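As noted in the main text, all predictions were made from sequence alone. Below is one such record, for CHASE3 domain-containing protein.
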Amino acid sequence: MLPNLPGKIVKNLANYPALIKQSALELFERVKSSDRRIYEVYDNLTGLDRVRSLHVGVAEAEKNFTQKQVKRKECQKEVFLLEEARNRINVQMDSVRRSDESFLKLVTELHELSRQYQLARDRLTSIESDEHIAFEQFSSILRHSQAEERIQANRMRQWTVGFSLAAGLIGFGATWIRFRQLDKQTSSNHLTAASSEVAEFSTQDLITAVQLSEKKYRAVLNELVVLINNLNDSVKSINEAALKVAEFSTQDLITAVQLSEKVNFSMLLSIIVLSICMCI
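Prediction:
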């Protein structure tokens, strides 16, 4: 037989609000305890725990001093009433003859009032002494509390200045690192642009040099062609002169020799120019 699943589900759903409430309370307590621990650590670092303890001591000392003041006022009032009663009895004793029976009664009352007055005066003196001691304690604790508050305020200012300085140094460091990165990036960009410009400039110069060399080679070739044509003409002239050497006179022979020397010089010059072009 299958279990009663719907009934269990309904029961669990009915228990969900209580579970959620309990979980919320537990979570709230945990957060509260963690906040308390955080505040305790903060108070220990900043010195607020000592200031708070001194404030508690100041409150207790003030309460004690106030109580002593109330007791002193009550005792002063009692002394004042007893003194008034004594003065009143003294006035009555002055108006009553010493032989009357009421005089003895007044003397007895005066004696009792004097005794109570003396006790009240002694008690007032003790209470005033206690009040003075309580006031000294209250003043001492208050001064100590004020000094601790000043120390705590100075400590907070020091912490503030320290954190501000640390934040400023961190910001300066981040800015410096960023500036260095930008400087490196800018330098690399400049180097890339300069190298590209140098490459373009070198390529352009190379093309120009090649064009100039080509022009020079063409000019040299043209000169060589002219020299070769001249040499051909000279060779033809030499051949014609050799055929007619027997018919020429001495003067014609000298002219032929000079022409042969010119041809040899032209051939030597052409060889030198060709060698220079090859070296270039």
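Residues 47-167 form a domain with the Helix Hairpins fold (CATH 1.10.287). The chain is about 95% helix and 0% strand. These features were considered when defining construct boundaries for the mutagenesis experiments described in Section 2.9.
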